[in-house]
Automatic annotation (TrEMBL):
<dbReference type="InterPro" id="IPR013324">
    <property type="entry name" value="RNA_pol_sigma_r3/r4-like"/>
</dbReference>
<keyword id="KW-0804">Transcription</keyword>
<dbReference type="InterPro" id="IPR036388">
    <property type="entry name" value="WH-like_DNA-bd_sf"/>
</dbReference>
<protein>
    <submittedName>
        <fullName>Sigma-70 family RNA polymerase sigma factor</fullName>
    </submittedName>
</protein>
<keyword id="KW-0805">Transcription regulation</keyword>
<keyword id="KW-0731">Sigma factor</keyword>
<feature type="domain" description="RNA polymerase sigma-70 region 2">
    <location>
        <begin position="28"/>
        <end position="77"/>
    </location>
</feature>
<dbReference type="InterPro" id="IPR039425">
    <property type="entry name" value="RNA_pol_sigma-70-like"/>
</dbReference>
<dbReference type="Pfam" id="PF04542">
    <property type="entry name" value="Sigma70_r2"/>
</dbReference>
<dbReference type="GO" id="GO:0016987">
    <property type="term" value="F:sigma factor activity"/>
</dbReference>
<dbReference type="GO" id="GO:0006352">
    <property type="term" value="P:DNA-templated transcription initiation"/>
</dbReference>
<dbReference type="InterPro" id="IPR007627">
    <property type="entry name" value="RNA_pol_sigma70_r2"/>
</dbReference>
<feature type="domain" description="RNA polymerase sigma factor 70 region 4 type 2">
    <location>
        <begin position="110"/>
        <end position="161"/>
    </location>
</feature>
<dbReference type="GO" id="GO:0003677">
    <property type="term" value="F:DNA binding"/>
</dbReference>
<dbReference type="InterPro" id="IPR014284">
    <property type="entry name" value="RNA_pol_sigma-70_dom"/>
</dbReference>
<dbReference type="InterPro" id="IPR013249">
    <property type="entry name" value="RNA_pol_sigma70_r4_t2"/>
</dbReference>
<dbReference type="InterPro" id="IPR013325">
    <property type="entry name" value="RNA_pol_sigma_r2"/>
</dbReference>
């Protein structure tokens, strides 16, 4: 005896529901995404909205979920994750404003001029510490001076540069 189509339609979702965990595990394994259940659910809703059932519902659901995951990955790669960001956040430029950049360049020139005005040994100690990131002990060894002398040169350089750039 043949089954009525509406009875088939009622039994198919029940069969899918019992196999949902297996389908979810397959989608998770194939996509490696944390939103696999959402992807599978969306695929199920799309399948249910179709006028005709696919021949192999499980294969349809997995393929549709994987395709949705690929689309999401591509979209996120271009636009970034859609974690509640508004459209304006995507347009914001993190770079400083032009006047801020010009002021920073002017301050940098002022500091550079101040460094050039330091006595040669003080400038050398200052640059070894600030640019080369050497410790006072390493500077003392390299220049064959005491660590106390390095500390005094650094204090002199910092005091001078502080005054030199005071109103900048």
């Amino acid at each position: 005896m043949s089954e009525h189509p509406s009875e088939q339609a009622l039994r198919a979702p029940r069969r899918l529901w019992t196999g949902w965990a297996g389908l979810l595990a397959q989608v998770e394994r194939m996509t490696r995404r944390s939103d696999s259940e959402d992807l599978l659910h969306d695929a199920y809703v799309r399948m249910a909205a179709r006028p005709e059932r696919p021949d192999n519902e499980e294969a349809f659901l997995v393929r549709a979920a994987v395709n949705r995951a690929r689309d999401s990955y591509r979209r996120e790669k271009v636009r970034g994750p859609a974690g509640g960001e508004d459209a304006l956040a995507l347009l914001r430029d993190g770079a400083p404003l032009q006047d801020e950049a010009l002021m920073a360049q002017a301050r940098l020139r002022r500091v550079s001029e101040g460094i050039d005005r330091l006595p040669p040994r003080t400038r050398e100690v200052f640059l070894l510490q600030r640019i080369d990131n050497l410790k006072y002990r390493e500077i003392a060894e390299r220049l064959d001076i005491s660590q106390s002398a390095v500390e005094k040169h650094m204090a002199r350089a910092m005091s001078f540069l502080g005054e030199w750039t005071k109103d900048w």
